[in-house]
Amino acid sequence: MDCEDMQMIISEEPNLSERKEGGKRGRKPGRKASNEKVDIKAKLERSRQSARECRARKKLRYQYLEELVADREKAVLALRAELERYKQWSHKLGEGRIPNGFQQLLEESGILKQEIS
């Protein structure tokens, strides 16, 4: 390419400083329409509704977790009672006595076969 070709290419490119003002992107300052006020009110109402729904979901989540904790606490108490019973049985077996309910436990677990009468 020679110098004349380069000048022709440069002269054919559009001048960026001659850009139209309407071609700019984004929000135009000072152009607030009356429908924007309606949009803002609708947006605020949607936001309020969303907040109400969020609080309701949060309340349900906490209720679910409280029920879950209560169920687990009941299970823990039942297991502690069972553990205490086994401790007492162990103590009685150590003394050579058979505790109440111990034979039934052995039969249920299949260690001791039930007698058929």
Automatic annotation (TrEMBL):
Main location: nucleus
Protein name as annotated: REPTOR-binding partner-like
Region (Disordered): 1-44
Protein's cellular compartments: Nucleus
Residue ranges, compositional bias (Basic and acidic residues): 33-44
InterPro entries xrefs: bZIP, bZIP_sf, CREBL2/REPTOR-BP
Stretches assigned to coiled coil: none
